[in-house]
Amino acid sequence: METNRRITRSGVLLRVLILAAFTVTITAQKPAPEVFTLTVPNGPILTRLNASVTLPCELSPIFNVEPLEVRWYRSENSNSPALLYKDHKIQETPVDPRYRGRVSLTGGLERGNVSLTLERVTLEDRGEYVCHVSNERWYEKANVSMNVTGSAPVLSVASGGGGQVNVTCSSEGWSPQPKLTWRNKEETEIKNEQVLFTSDSQGLLSVSSWLLYPPSDSDWLSCTISLSEEEKRESRVLPHKPGAWKEAFIVTLVLSLLLLSALSTVVCILLKHRDQMKLEQNKSGKLTVSF
Ligand SMILES: *[C@@H]1O[C@H](CO)[C@@H](O)[C@H](O)[C@H]1NC(C)=O
Ligand SMILES: *[C@@H]1O[C@H](CO)[C@@H](O)[C@H](O)[C@H]1NC(C)=O
Ligand SMILES: *[C@@H]1O[C@H](CO)[C@@H](O)[C@H](O)[C@H]1NC(C)=O
Predict the structure, then answer these.
(1) Considering every ligand atom, which ligand is closest to the CA of 194?
(2) Do 137 and 46 reside in the same domain of the chain?
(3) What is the pTM assigned to this prediction?
(4) Chain centre to alpha carbon of residue 259
(5) What span, in angstroms and rounded, lies between the C-alpha atoms of 148 and 191?
(6) How far is the centre of ligand 3, averaged over its atoms, from the C-alpha of 184 (Å)?
(7) Same domain, residue pair 124 and 58
(8) In this structure, what is the dihedral angle of CA atoms 35, 37, 38, 43, given to the nearest 10 degrees?
(9) How far apart are CA 53 and CA 5, in angstroms?
(10) pLDDT tens for residues 17-33?
(11) How many folded domains does the chain comprise?
């Protein structure tokens, strides 16, 4: 009796295992589509020097890319790619030695995400990259461009004499030489010849400028540092009269405390609902920082 029951039980277990294996096989063999396309951002991906950056590239429709070949290369250099994924693994050769140890595919190939992660970005890394995905019957490629930009501009306000305030704007880490633009609340450019560039040991440029302006509690000033229309960073400041800093500080403090308590409430709610929630990914490649 005892032996019989054990046999029956393991019989059931065996059947469950076979069924499970069968299901897994069926899922894995769901055929990849005949044709596919790649989705990449329109504008350039901007990053800081020495930072890590992800160059997005995703398949549509979504399917498991593991059996396919993924090749990321500089436009001029397809034979010596930055990364080559083939035969279910990242290949050591024939890859460009400049990228060795700095590249990975971390987005999840099984979800059709072939985004390239590049670490310790150098100035040489700037440029066009090609995301190339192929199987025996079909290939698709798309360009992603990457550029290095400087830091968000830092604005400060000091007394300028004659009832005016002296607003300064500075930012570092640019190459090539960027353009600095002051604008008022109406988005009108304020002409200013006072722009100073200094170069650091890596050949990157720091830029700074100052402006005398009538103090105001409502008309902000903006400072934009740009390489092009797509490649720019902006910061804003209210040109408070220095000395009004005490009231400004107290108002800021009260607002911060209010914000903090509101935030902690939100965080509590979020934590509670964490399992039900999926956060929307921001897919915009454009980096414009505003304060
Ligand atoms: C693809 O992977 C990258 C990181 O490698 C990630 O930033 C991105 O959000 C992923 N895309 C999707 C749609 O999950
Ligand atoms: C980076 O931006 C600058 C200014 O727009 C441009 O001259 C340069 O070609 C860009 N580099 C790349 C690799 O896109
Ligand atoms: C404004 O401040 C800058 C330094 O941030 C200084 O170099 C400049 O001389 C000041 N201008 C006036 C008129 O005070």
Answers:
(1) 3
(2) yes
(3) 0.64
(4) 26
(5) 27
(6) 19
(7) yes
(8) 160
(9) 59
(10) 444 554 444 444 456 78
(11) 4
